[in-house]
Automatic annotation (TrEMBL):
Xref: InterPro entries: UPF0194_transport
UniProt entry keywords in alphabetical sequence: Coiled coil, Membrane, Transmembrane, Transmembrane helix
Coiled coil stretches, renumbered: 127-161, 323-357
Name assigned to this protein: HlyD family efflux transporter periplasmic adaptor subunit
Keyword Ribonucleoprotein: no
Cellular compartment(s): Cell envelope
Transmembrane region(s): 36-55
Biased composition (Low complexity): 10-20
Keyword Coiled coil attributed: yes
Main location: other
């Protein structure tokens, strides 16, 4: 084996003194300069390559490939405009029983889930405080009513009225604001519609004359007879100068309007045997009734309606006195009674809550009572809901509110189950505006006899606002909003044509920047923009009322292609 040896360099012996430096050879200097130039060139090449890469990947737009035009023919069909949303369902009727006093639960007759009818007993609770509150309130109302009645009687006493129909006599004079005391004489009222006679007959006719028996009244002054009757018999002992004993007979007859009191008169009574009975002596006519009218209260004169010999009717006002104090007292007392009555009603309601009956037909949705437990004021102990009819509240915006009216039906869906809602009210007064749109609450009534729709459910709704039949339809994305060359907004559709149509619009379209795809076709593609009038639309199509006819190819968009690079 041959060993490899490492060569050893032997250092030269250094001279004793260093020689003076000398210039390098000329050939070496040229090589060094050439090497620097080469290095500089390499650096420049690297920089140029980096700049190209920066331009290629950052500054230069990636190459794009325009997608193919996707177009469809306009067709004839039917389109509907449908409004959709959601709303909250609740029972049409609901009643919560809340206690206003505390007490002890004695009996509970229902449980949650029970179906009850109005008037059905629910529970009984004993509350001494509630019972006392009712009795105290009743007593207070009664006392106040008695006090009011007395005040009203005093007010009524300020008005002097005729107690019966008749004629005024001996009228007193009264002036406005004159102070009149209680008990002051006002007038004398006589009933001259009838007249009466008091005559005496011999006791020999005691059994022949009876009350109600007809009589003939003779008035010598007018030389006429008048029909009357016996009104009253008084078994007195009137003794004549001749020593005969007589009893009193009171006879009444109608006044034809020409007779008065104080006229001489006599009567003849036809007896059962056909003979006539006559009084011991004739008498004088009297008014059937005479009464002196006086005031029952004091006060200033407000008005007077008094005239001597004036005929008046029963209840006619003769004199009116005033009293501000009494009027104020009555008003204050009426206010007190109203407050007390409200307190009584509240107390009665509170007591009724302790022996409650179902206020409505429905299902008991909550019952917190247990026998023997203590309850306090403010506790809601029973909730009853009538869910056979549900109310669903939805909101409809101002774009569609004109399409819905009371009586319209709305399709509803909840958890896959469908229902029909009927519009019962549109509350325009509770409209709310936000984001430039106004929403109106609409109430629907839903038949829920099977109880499948629960209280509080959120249901989806939809209804058709309008429909067009046999109309021209195109995809909604085919309708473009652009500006014409004058800067006016236009609604257009790009249609395919072999030559430029007469109704082609001149548009102001922005130029496509390098590296960008076109979004709209050009005339080179064979597509031309025409103005259209649109109608209703749904989620896919739109109705074209003018501008496009059936069968015309309309531009929808470009198909999507991926960018490619040539590396």
């Amino acid at each position: 084996m041959t060993e490899q040896q490492t060569p050893v360099l032997t250092p030269e012996t250094s001279p004793t003194s260093a020689p003076s430096p000398t210039a390098p050879p000329k050939k070496k200097r040229k090589k060094k300069h050439l090497k620097g130039i080469i290095t500089l060139v390499i650096l420049l090449a690297i920089l140029a390559g980096g700049g190209y890469l920066l331009w290629r990947f950052v500054l230069q737009p990636p190459p794009v490939e325009q997608g193919e035009i996707y177009a469809v023919p306009a067709s004839i069909g039917t389109i509907q405009s449908v409004v959709q949303g959601s709303g909250n369902a609740k029972a049409k009727e609901s009643a919560a029983i809340t206690l206003t006093e505390g007490g002890t639960v004695r009996e509970v007759f229902v449980n949650p889930g029970d179906v009850v009818t109005a008037g059905q007993p629910l529970y009984t609770i004993y509350s001494e405080a509630a019972e006392k509150a009712v009795s105290d309130a009743q007593e207070k109302v009664s006392n106040l009513n008695r006090e009011l009645s007395k005040l009203q009687e005093q007010v009524s006493d300020l008005v002097v009225k005729a107690p019966f129909a008749g004629k005024l006599m001996n009228v007193q004079t009264f002036t406005p604001d004159q102070d009149v005391s209680s008990g002051a004489e006002v007038t004398t009222l006589v009933n001259d519609k009838k007249l009466k006679l008091s005559l005496y007959f011999s006791y020999a006719y005691e059994n022949s004359i009876a009350v109600g028996q007809s009589v003939s009244v003779n008035i010598p002054a007018v030389m006429k007879d008048f029909s009357g009757k016996v009104e009253k018999i008084n078994k007195v002992s009137y003794i004549s100068p001749e020593g005969a004993v007589h009893f009193e007979v009171v006879v009444v007859f109608d006044n034809p309007g020409t007779l008065t009191a104080g006229m001489d008169a006599s009567v003849a009574i036809t007896l059962a045997d056909g003979t006539s009975a006559y009084p011991y002596a004739s008498g004088k006519t009297e008014y059937y009734e005479t009464r002196t009218i006086t005031t029952k209260a004091s006060g200033p004169v407000v008005s007077s309606n008094l005239l001597n010999y004036a005929n008046v009717t029963a209840g006619q006002t003769l004199l009116t006195l005033g009293s501000d104090t009494l009027n104020d007292q009555i008003t204050a007392k009426q206010d007190e009674i109203a407050t007390a009555q409200k307190a009584l009603e509240d107390a009665q309601k509170a007591l009724a809550n302790f022996n409650a009956v179902a206020p409505i037909d429905g299902t008991v949705t909550a019952c917190t009572l247990t026998v023997g437990s203590e309850v306090k004021s403010g506790d809601t102990v029973i909730i009853i809901s009538n869910s056979t009819t549900m109310l669903v509240t939805i909101t409809v915006d101002d774009r569609n509110i004109s399409f819905i009216k009371p009586g319209n039906t709305v399709d509803l869906d909840w958890n896959g189950s469908t229902y029909i809602g009927t519009v019962t009210s549109i509350d325009m007064s509770k409209a709310e505006s936000s984001n430039g749109m106004t929403n109106y609450p609409v109430t629907l009534t839903v038949d829920n006899m099977d109880g499948s729709l629960v209280d509080g459910a959120w249901v989806n709704y939809s209804f058709v606002t309008s429909q067009s039949d046999d109309c021209v339809l195109i995809p909604g994305s085919a309708v473009k909003s652009v500006l014409d060359k004058d800067g006016n907004p236009q609604t257009v559709v790009f249609i395919k044509a072999d030559s430029k149509p007469e109704n082609t619009l001149e548009l102001d379209l922005p130029e496509v920047e390098p590296g960008q795809k076109r979004t709209l076709p050009t005339e080179e593609d064979g597509y031309y923009p025409v103005a259209v009038e649109t109608g209703i639309s749904d989620t896919q199509n739109v109705e074209i009322k003018s501008g496009v006819e059936e069968g015309m190819e309309v531009f929808v968009n470009y198909t999507v292609t991926e960018s490619s690079s040539s590396w």
